[in-house]
Amino acid sequence: MSLLALEWDAAAGRDGRGALRILDQTLLPTVTEHLVVEDVDTLVDAIGRLAVRGAPALGVTGALGVVVAMDQAADEGWDEDRLRREVDRVRDARPTAVNLAWGVDAVRPLVPQGRAAVLEAALRVAREDEAANRELSRLAADWLLERTGKERLRVLTHCNAGVLATSAWGTALGVVRELDARGLVEFVYADETRPLLQGARLTAWELAAEGIPHAVQADGAAASTIMRGLVDCAVVGADRITANGDVANKVGTLGVALACREAGIPLLVAAPWSTVDLAMADGSEIEIEERPGEEVTMLTGVRVAPEGTPGFNPAFDVTPARLVTAVATERGVVEPAAGDRLDGSSDG
């Protein structure tokens, strides 16, 4: 993919000091437009309206967001307390995905050392994310081939966990790309991912660009596709993984997991280790973000539900560990459904 979700543009910004450049994913696939982010308000807005989204991409955004805040502080003469509050706004812009806070926390201790130290650390976060994504994709592909015994795989995906959700390469879609590079992908079913259609708009866009055979299907078709034997596995990303292997991901993932268990095919979760939150024992502790109801009751600005009918719009659901066949990170593959835990302890 030639387009990245975000990057640090060294030639942009005031006096050419550099600025965060974000691909506005709300406009894809019909319009390709970038935002140059030089203030915290713009960054928090971009995160909130999903101009930038996807757990690993949010981690890098959080790290680079500290630099954005420091630059604004220098321009506007903020004191340390104001800078702390503004960095907190970036950190807390979306509650469910752990990577955003992780990215901020990874570079924040370096603020006293100055902008150059924070920027260097943030760019390292981006480089390490790509390396992690490539490694977890390799490990996951090997695991899937061994587990399924298939020569070529038919894969189901839910939401977008590709280049557009990361600094580069992708997680769940990175696994598909790794398999495709080996000539081992037969077909991909991409769930449309209501209500904002990340699968139809973004995953299909990436698959088309890579020339990978695919189709978009309604979310409600996923269980039937699985039960009819049309796929060999489901591969999804994650926004937070707890110590016991519970997984928070885009709402609808739980339904995919239930169908996979019933059909006896693996559900593999692909995510970098930064998505693992060992401080959380299980998924009951995860805060589920609720987004505006209008995202459900309206479509492209047109109301599709009666006036006065509210929309219920949880952005994520939690799939319990017993339904998660495997979690692949750059550190290896664990099998929560078989009793493996991310913290290495035993359920027995």
What is the CA-atom radius of gyration, in angstroms?
20 Å
Strand line-up of the largest beta sheet: 6-5-4-7-10-15-16
Number of helices: 10
Order of helices and strands: EEEHHHHHEHEHEHEEEHEEHEEEEE
Helix content: 25-40%
For the residues shown, what is the average pLDDT?
96
Q: For the terminal residues, how far apart are their CA atoms?
A: 44 Å
- Biggest sheet, open or closed, and with what strands and sense? 7 strands, mixed
CATH topology of the largest domain: Rossmann fold
Mind telling me the CATH class of the largest domain?
A: Alpha Beta
CATH homologous superfamily of the largest domain? Translation initiation factor eif-2b, domain 2
Q: Provide the CATH architecture of the largest domain.
A: 3-Layer(aba) Sandwich
Low-confidence blocks of residues: none
Query: How many domain regions?
Result: 2
- Let me know the number of strands: 16
How would you sum up this structure, described in words?
The protein has 348 residues and is an alpha/beta fold. The chain has two domains: 6-128, Four Helix Bundle (Hemerythrin (Met), subunit A) (Up-down Bundle), CATH 1.20.120; 138-338, 3-Layer(aba) Sandwich (Rossmann fold), CATH 3.40.50. Helices cover 38% and strands 18% of the residues. The strands form four sheets. A seven-stranded mixed sheet has the order 6-5-4-7-10-15-16. α2 (55-76) packs across α4. The longest helix is centred in the middle third of the chain and has 34 residues, at 115-148. The N and C termini lie far apart (44 Å). The model has no long low-confidence stretch (mean pLDDT 96).
